[in-house]
Amino acid sequence: MGDPLNQESVNVGAFFAILSPLAAAQGGRSKTSGVIGMMHDATSGRLARRALGAVLLFCLTLPAGCTPSSPGPSGAGDTFRKEVLAARDSLAPALMDAVASREPRSAKRILEQRCALAKEGGSPFACGITVLDNHGITLASATIAPGEPIKRLDYSRYEVVMNGLKERKIVKTKLYLQDRTTLCVVVIPLVRQGEALGLLVLAFDAADLRDRFGLTEEEFLKVDLNG
User: Fold this and answer.
1) Rounded to an integer, what distance in angstroms lies between the CA atom of residue 11 and that of residue 144?
2) Is pLDDT of 38 > 60?
3) Which of 17, 90, 109, 110 would bridge with 141, disulfide CB 3.0–4.6 Å?
4) What is the DSSP string of 161-205?
5) Geometric angle at alpha carbon 11, from 7 and 13, rounded to 5°
6) Is the pLDDT of residue 49 over 70?
7) Which long-range contacts (CB under 8 A, 24 or more apart) does 39-46 make?
8) Computed from CA positions of residues 107, 38, 125, 83, in that sequence, does the dihedral angle turn out positive or negative?
C-alpha cells in the first residue's frame, strides 16, 4: 500500500482497528449507518467485522489539530472538553503501566474492565477507544471481542500519531467514512515523567456530538483540550 497521507485515504480496518465501537450513550436513539450503530457490547465484534471494508479519508487539516487552538463555544465546547478529559482521567492512569511495558494482553484487559465499569455506572464511554504504544503500534482496542487475537497494527507513518507522541500534547483530526459519516478523533499522549509512553485515541461520531452538545465539526477543531 502506498503512503496513505499522500493518497489521503486509508482502509478503516487498517487505521486504529476502526477505532472501536461507539458506546450506547445516545439516550435510546437507534443508529444504523456506518460505525454509528456500534456499541460496547457483545455485538461489537460482529459490527466491527462488517465495517472492515469501509474507506476513510483524512481531513488533513493537521495545523488545526496540532497547534494551540482557540477555545470552543462556552457551552458545547466546554461540555465536550469535560467529557474528553473525564475519559482521559478514567482510562489513562489505569493503562499507564501496561502501555509502559508494551503488554497488549494487560492493556486489553484493563481497557475492557474500565469500559465495563463505566457501563455499569450508567455512563458508558460515548466514543471509540484504541491504545497505541510509543512506536504507534496497537496495544488494545475496544472493538476486539473477548478471545479474539490482538492485531498489532503499525501506525508510525501517520502524522497525527507521531505528532501526538512528539509534542506530548492532545491533537485532533477528522476522519470521513465512505458512507459520509464523520469521526472526530482525539489523540491523547500518555505521559509519565515527561516521556510519552503511548497514545489513547478517542473517536467520536460527529453527528452524535452535534445531537448531544450542539457541537459542530468546525467547533470541534477549535476546542482547546490542552489548556
Assistant:
1) 17
2) no
3) 17
4) HHHHHHH-S-EEEEEE-TTS-EEEEEEEEEEETTEEEEEEEEEEE
5) 155
6) no
7) 40/115, 40/119, 40/124, 40/125, 40/142, 42/145, 44/20, 44/142, 44/143, 44/145, 45/143, 45/144, 45/145, 45/148
8) positive
First to last CA, the chain: 38
Residues 6+ apart with CB under 8 A from 123: 25
Here the cell at position 49 is 467485522
67 alpha-carbon distance from chain centroid: 19
- Grid coordinates 461520531 are at which residue? 205
Q: Are 116 and 141 within 8 A, CB to CB? A: no
Output the nine-digit C-alpha cell for 202: 478517542
Give CA–CA dist 114/172, Å, rounded.
23
Domains of the chain by range and CATH? 4-222 (3.30.450.20)
Record the cell numbers describing residue 181, joined without a space. Answer: 459519516
Residue given cell 452535534 in the structure block: 210
- 96-100 contacts, C-beta under 8 A, 24 or more apart: 96/190, 96/192, 96/197, 98/139, 99/131, 99/133, 99/134, 99/139, 99/190, 99/197, 99/198, 100/192, 100/197, 100/198
Q: pLDDT-derived band of residue 172, with 50, 70 and 90 as boundaries?
A: very high
In this prediction, residue 18 has a pLDDT band, given cuts at 50, 70 and 90, of very low
Q: What is the pTM of this model?
A: 0.72
CB-based contacts of 39, cutoff 8 Å, min separation 6: 21, 22, 23, 24, 47
All three cell numbers of 137, joined, read 503500534
Containing H/E element for 206?
A: helix 206-213
